[in-house]
Amino acid sequence: MAPKRPSGASAFPKPVESPAPKKRPNPTDLYAALDLGTNSCRMLIAQPKGNQFHVVDSFSKSVQLGAGLERTGRLNRGSMQRTVQALRVCQQKLKSHRVKHMRLVATEACRRAENSRQFLNQVQRETGIKLEIIKPEEEARLAVISCAPLVSTNTEQLLVVDIGGGSTELVWIDLSAVPKWERPRSIMRLHAGFHTPDSPFPAAKVVDWISIPLGVATLRDNFSDVEDDAARYALMSCHFEERLADFAPYADQQTREGFQIIGTSGTVTTVAASHLGLKRYDRTKVDGLRMTSDQIDHVIDGYLQLGPDGRRSDPRIGSDRQALIMSGAAILQALLRSWPTDRLSVADRGLREGLLYAQMCANGVLEDGPY
Questions:
Q1: Sorting pLDDT into bands at 50, 70 and 90, what band is 93?
Q2: Of the given ranges (27-31, 41-45, 106-110, 364-368), which has the lowest mean pLDDT?
Q3: CATH number for the domain whose boundaries are 138-347
Q4: What pTM was estimated for this model as a whole?
Q5: Under 8 Å between Cβ of 165 and 66
Q6: 47-62 b/e with 16+ CB inside 10 Å = b?
Q7: Domain 27-136 has CATH 3.30.420.40
């Protein structure tokens, strides 16, 4: 399946996660975003506040919807049943909070599965949730939205990378014509699309974007028959790097100042948590952290030395993610080989945050205050 390209995007302000307010929010003020991916089902319910939002409730569960998809081209019965059970919990939360504004989306697994339409009908029948399958273009656009607050004012060339369960989206943005102090805000102005020709403001230019149908789950499944841990890792990384061949903006200027990579995914945040030596995950310490390529290599080398059993016992990884972290790490190192940089910005944010900001911006409920 060839990587897909198009033309459309969006971007907005910074999420603020906090406990629910003491008073029960008015349901007309609440917004929900549900992301059903290849591996996980995740949802946020939030309330706009100023130019940000407060999280009122959340849900996250590994459902492995795409298990076996690479081999059969179909969603299997067990995966669908696990997902339906998780979506029942989401529906109960939506009903309990009486949420009026919501976007409930599915991504790569449902885009690719032959029986995805039957599955979505089953979900609606059994849970009342109506899922929308979004295109790779919109998934990439929403990743850019969620990462806008992490853009440095010194950044001239920006690469946003979203490593998902079933696909990886990359968006390259040229900010060199935008005044430094306007660069983060210019990313937010992409809410009108990847191309905003009539904007009176300094414009961020989306040079290129791509959606590669390989994520942590699908890449792992492609090499599940390779028994040696280190060999499997090397093969995964080389295979992903080959899929980057058609995406080479500014290939002759790879090493330069003013270049920033922002990575958003469970892989990136797990690597950051390992680097910090966190016993318990802390979003406030991880989101926005900048890691050098040497620090990332050191963490990944440590994962390889641990081996599968050691990774299972690592509290930052766990038994259910030990294989996924290595396929994600293979993708991450392939990216850093393709675009050498001494810094990667870690984003603990993604599709759900982008969905929330897109809805709130469209309804005009976010203030245009200081960024």
A1: very high
A2: 364-368
A3: 3.30.420.150
A4: 0.84
A5: yes
A6: bbeebbbbbbbebebb
A7: yes
